[in-house]
Amino acid sequence: MAKWGEGDPRWIVEQRADATNVNNWHWTERDASNWSSEKLKSLLLAIRAENAEGTCEVTEVSKLDGEASINNRKGKLIFFYEWNIKLTWTGTSNTGVKYKGYVEIPNLSDENDVDEIEISVSLAKDEPDTNLLALMKHEGVNQISSALETYISTLKTEFTQGMILPTVNGEQSELPPQPVRKAEERKTTEPVAGNALKSKSIGVKIPTCKINLKDVFLTSPDELYRVFITQEMVQAFTHSPAFLEADKGGKFQLLDGSVTGEFTELVPEKQIAMKWRFKTWPEGHFATITLTFIDKAGETEIRLEGRGIPANEEERTREGWQRYYFEGIKQTFGYGARLF
């Protein structure tokens, strides 16, 4: 126990303006309910079984009650999820006759293994007997079990990224660092890719516009700067795979390739400038995005300036940055603050 007035170094979080959970000592929790709800719906609505008798498919998630969360205590992740699910399935015989039925999953929880989860399949009231019921009870149930297993696995891998964050030295402790090649090495090994952005010809001049955004985050400029250039942290707040080379001239790819670009300037704690594009933009066209970080005594104001954005993409780009970047970061890392 520390002497009176000295302070225990394990509680260094109390001495930080950004309240970072240093060394993962304190109990932190992330609500996974909304993410789980969307993930379960997407997995279950993809169920489709087929044989010589016809096809069966899940057509509606009619009930999805429950919650899910992840807790981090001293670097150990503790998972909690509990769901009561009811599905509607439709069978279509090879002669075109349709049947309706239900699937009930009353006990999807962390207390049960996947093979212990109860999955009950039935026909709707007054529906005549059909061999499609057997198809749904066998192949359909197998696919549902596989979907639930995928949900649990993804919850424990994809959604947990970024939960175990800084150590006392400000380094990542959750995943081994990704190798980052120096700019000189990249020029040697990738001469074509390195010049791709410069040599691309747009072909047709398009009308462009400028956007400005600003927001406030309850963290330090240093921590917020790291969020934008650390691969694991970007994957955490976008909930999708990402690739980044965090140095000047380094390439990046986010949101499963929907966003690509190149860092043109990196000034720690101060500014990030980049060439940035949506994949649906005219080929070879990049906007210039500049993020400026301003210390506001315990908070950080971020100012975004975007130039060269296709005029017809102005609102989409503005909303994308606000939703997938700013709001995503706040929700994932707890940096929520008032909006301007």
TrEMBL record:
Residues 29-161 form the Activator of Hsp90 ATPase AHSA1-like N-terminal domain. GO terms for molecular function: ATPase activator activity; Hsp90 protein binding; protein folding chaperone; protein-folding chaperone binding. It is found in: Cytoplasm, Cytosol; Endoplasmic reticulum. The keyword Plastid does not apply. Keywords: Acetylation, Chaperone, Cytoplasm, Endoplasmic reticulum, Isopeptide bond, Phosphoprotein, Stress response, Ubl conjugation. InterPro entries: Aha1, AHSA1-like_N, ASHA1/2-like_C, START-like_dom_sf. GO terms for cellular component: cytosol; endoplasmic reticulum. One of its GO terms (biological process) is maintenance of unfolded protein. Residues 169-192 are annotated as: Disordered. Belongs to the AHA1 family. Acts as a co-chaperone of HSP90AA1. Activates the ATPase activity of HSP90AA1 leading to increase in its chaperone activity. Competes with the inhibitory co-chaperone FNIP1 for binding to HSP90AA1, thereby providing a reciprocal regulatory mechanism for chaperoning of client proteins. Competes with the inhibitory co-chaperone TSC1 for binding to HSP90AA1, thereby providing a reciprocal regulatory mechanism for chaperoning of client proteins. This is Activator of 90 kDa heat shock protein ATPase homolog 1. It comes from Podarcis muralis.
